[in-house]
Amino acid sequence: MPEGEEKICAVCGDRATGYHFHVMTCEGCKGFFRRSISKGVCFTCPFTRNCTITKAKRRQCQACRLQKCLAVGMRKDSKVPPGRALGWAGASAVQGSRLARHRAGLVPCSGSWLAGP
Amino acid sequence: MPEGEEKICAVCGDRATGYHFHVMTCEGCKGFFRRSISKGVCFTCPFTRNCTITKAKRRQCQACRLQKCLAVGMRKDSKVPPGRALGWAGASAVQGSRLARHRAGLVPCSGSWLAGP
DNA sequence: TGCGGTTCACAAAGTTCA
DNA sequence: TGAACTTTGTGAACCGCA
Ligand SMILES: [Zn+2]
Ligand SMILES: [Zn+2]
Ligand SMILES: [Zn+2]
Ligand SMILES: [Zn+2]
């Protein structure tokens, strides 16, 4: 990370505190991502899965917040670099149950709130 | 919460206990709003739909109290700032039945006690 | 020294009962 | 109806290991 580089959370735009799960994020998104992934929860967006995530609104839609976390590349370090770079379809190449992959931050939860391409 | 913000209920002026349904309100208006919305009730103002809502009088007209709740922005979570900012007409863009929108705190109940502009 | 994990006080939603 | 209470998620501050 080049010095003097802005420390801005890639998820919500709040002040970031460093790299967390491979992405520059704030303490809030760091904790949110860890809690979400470790519990294997599935959130549901009450709208159209395109809520804007800002510091002020990040608590209002967990589904879109988690979606954004994954979209910017957050993942548990566990194993193979995700197929995410190839789109969600690529992630299915990774071994393990879907839930296991979900917990590793490789895939969103089973299709309910994020349609793969 | 903005620092030094007054802890006054935006609906009735009583002492507020924090943000409830996105608005700084007292325990009474918090409970009243949840009960009203979750049950999808329709109140009718016995007067001209412009009753003043104060701590002392808030119990006297449920229709106007609920109208005031909506006017100051109270809404069930999981609902983005509705079309309310655009007037009631804008809310009709929100998907779902009118009752669903009503229960989400997006629209008043069907025209009986609040005439849209 | 940076980052994952833990702790814990706090905010807000729901519940109870006089 | 609403004061008091329970429940759940949040995030700032820590802690400890590379
Ligand atoms: Zn963030
Ligand atoms: Zn959303
Ligand atoms: Zn009030
Ligand atoms: Zn009235």
Automatic annotation (TrEMBL), chains A, B:
Pfam families xref list: zf-C4 (PF00105)
Xref: Gene3D superfamilies: Erythroid Transcription Factor GATA-1, subunit A (3.30.50.10)
MF annotations from Gene Ontology: nuclear receptor activity; RNA polymerase II cis-regulatory region sequence-specific DNA binding; zinc ion binding
InterPro entries: Nuclear_hormone_rcpt_NR1, Znf_hrmn_rcpt, Znf_NHR/GATA
GO CC annotations on file: cytoplasm
Protein's cellular compartments: Cytoplasm
The name this protein goes by in its record: Nuclear receptor domain-containing protein
